[in-house]
Specification:
The mean pLDDT is about 95. By secondary structure, the protein is of the alpha/beta class. Helix 6 packs parallel to helix 9, helix 11 crosses helix 12 and helix 12 runs parallel beside helix 13 (about 420-430). The protein folds into three domains: about 1-150 and about 300-305, no CATH class; about 150-275, 2-Layer Sandwich (60s Ribosomal Protein L30, Chain: A), CATH 3.30.1330; about 315-490, fumarase. The termini are far apart. The chain has a five-stranded mixed barrel. A four-stranded mixed beta sheet has the order 6-2-7-12. It has helices at about 5-20, 25-40, 40-60, 90-100, 150-155, 170-180, 195-205, 215-220, 225-240, 325, 345-355, 395-405, 420-430, 440-445, 485-500; strands at about 5, 70-80, 85, 115, 120-125, 130-135, 140-150, 160, 185-195, 255-260, 270-275, 280-285, 315, 335-345, 370, 410-415, 430-435, 450-455, 465-480.
């Protein structure tokens, strides 16, 4: 019987986490490429282009696909006859691997994990601990499924305890629009059915580890009830017209995965967990013959494309921005930003509002400025900043009105839609909301030429930075009148898809 060593486990998990930080699974690349070829919405096609170009750049440069390098989730099947030689517990081995991977100086990954989650929320500094699930199974091997789950998509998870007579498909189709675009579509929907509440959620999460295969399933036809459910949900969700990044289009989901488990006669637990456009997961087996052999995909697997902004894009000088100018921007319009740009996320916004409430001066001047909702990855090899894609803007909704009311802030940049309260505040203060593409973090960072921390350095990646950008592409999502593309575009594309289905 071969011996599985502590070093093999640590090295394999650490290598896997680095690997998935910059290599998309090829099934995902192929599915996005197919969606790009079929897409008719110009805005969605542009977003898909950015996602594909970003994916290839990350594969070439070994840099993170997304600035949110995720919370580590591990499923480990432990063979009952496995011979493991180790001083550390399996939990400690996995967390040692996480620490090694996330602090790797050649490709340092963003530490996003906070201890004391309902209190002081202090960053652990190395992205530990991982969320780990074990099963004891027959055999003498260790089988790992390793994922790095982004916070934006994880926050859109849903659990419902339906009545046995309820229509599960209707619940999913009604729920997906409520998620908005903060989960960075297109991606996968993981669905767990049955068991108990916690079992359904676990099934949904594990289902996301499977490869994308909905097209081959559609070609051969469903052979059981779960496959029929997958096809029905896939078709009905895409018919909603939400599209890439919520900008309206033909593809909202690339696949629907379902796992089920027997449940109580009185119950129908259903969990839904979306996976984003930075989907990161890998499987490997350790049998005592050495660390996992992770084979890089060939770069020829990616489509040969570059990102070029549409000819009608408007160049904006951030150094001379005014309220009069932003009033001319139209929903859906593409802008290229150049000049100085401030950043700020949840923790920084909370600090700014506390200072305003206390009548204290702010550490940064927001007058006639834009603020970008981002927590970047640390730079390497002379980069100004690491991958720096947008975070979910709706988390800042509760700060929007007071910040606009007490400063000269002109607008914000994030991803996905804003809520009604934030949109009303934007309109009342004649501000704007712009979006960058979630899932294109490394591509976005190419537009950032300089970066420096200007406030709240102790917050780490949540500090306020000042970026100097050149031709950073963004889209006008909410104009000064409160018109939102995330409200109008999906409605338009839902009608177009319905019309196409009747032709």
């Amino acid at each position: 019987m071969n011996t599985i060593t502590q070093d093999e486990i640590i090295q394999s998990v650490a290598d896997a986490l680095q690997f998935i930080s910059y290599y998309h699974p090829l099934d995902f690349v192929n599915a996005v490429t197919q969606a790009w070829e079929l897409e008719q919405s110009p805005a969605a096609k542009d977003a898909l282009t950015q996602i594909l170009v970003n994916s290839r750049l990350c594969a070439e440069g070994h840099r993170p696909i997304c600035q949110d390098t995720g919370i580590v989730v591990v499923f480990c099947d432990v063979g009952m006859q496995a011979n493991i030689h180790a001083d550390l517990s399996l939990d400690d081995m996995i967390n040692t691997a996480v620490r090694r991977a996330y602090l790797d100086p050649g490709n340092k990954l963003r530490a996003s994990i906070l201890r004391d989650p309902a209190g002081q929320r202090i960053n652990t500094g190395d992205n530990t601990p991982a969320v780990i699930h074990y099963r004891i199974v027959p055999g003498d091997k260790l089988e790992f499924k390793v994922a790095a789950k982004g916070g934006g998509s994880e926050n859109k998870s849903r659990l419902a305890m339906l009545n046995p007579s309820d229509n599960l498909v209707d619940w999913v189709v009604d729920t997906v629009p409520e998620l908005g675009a903060g989960w960075c579509p297109p991606g996968m929907l993981g669905i767990g059915i049955g068991g108990t509440a916690e079992k359904a959620v676990l099934l949904a999460k594990e289902s996301l580890m499977a490869p994308i295969d909905i097209q081959s399933l559609a070609d051969r036809g469903a052979q059981n009830r779960l496959e029929a459910l997958r096809l029905e949900i896939y078709a009905r969700v895409n018919a909603l017209g939400i599209g890439a990044q919520g900008l309206g289009g033909l593809t909202t989901v690339l696949d629907v995965k379902i796992l089920d488990y027997p449940t109580h006669a009185a119950s129908l637990p259903v969990a839904l967990i979306p996976n984003c456009a930075a989907t990161r997961h890998i499987e490997f087996t350790l049998d005592g013959t050495g660390p996992a052999n992770l084979v890089p995909p060939p770069l020829t697997a990616w489509p040969d494309m570059t990102y070029e902004v549409a000819p009608g894009a408007k160049r904006i000088d951030l150094e001379h921005l005014s309220r009069e100018e932003i009033a001319t921007w139209q929903p859906g319009e593409t802008l290229l930003l150049s000049g100085r740009l401030l950043t700020g996320r949840d923790a920084a916004h909370k600090r700014l509002l506390e200072l305003i409430e206390q009548g204290e001066p702010l550490p940064v001047d927001l007058d006639n400025r834009l603020i970008y909702y981002v927590g970047p990855v640390d730079p390497v090899d002379g980069e100004a900043v690491g991958p720096a894609g947008p975070t979910t803007a709706s988390r800042m909704d509760k700060f929007t009105r007071p910040l606009l009311a007490h400063t000269g802030l002109l607008g914000m940049i994030g991803k996905a839609e804003r809520g009604p309260e934030a949109i009303q505040a934007i309109a009342e203060h004649q501000a704007v909301y712009l979006i960058a593409v979630g899932g294109a973090a490394y591509l976005v960072s190419k537009a950032i030429r300089k970066a420096r921390v200007v406030a709240f350095a102790e917050l780490g990646m949540e500090a306020i930075y000042e970026f100097e950008v050149v031709d950073m592409p963004v889209t006008v999502a909410v104009d000064t009148h409160g018109q939102s593309v995330h409200h109008s575009a999906p409605l338009i594309w839902r009608q177009r898809i319905e019309q196409m289905s009747h032709q």
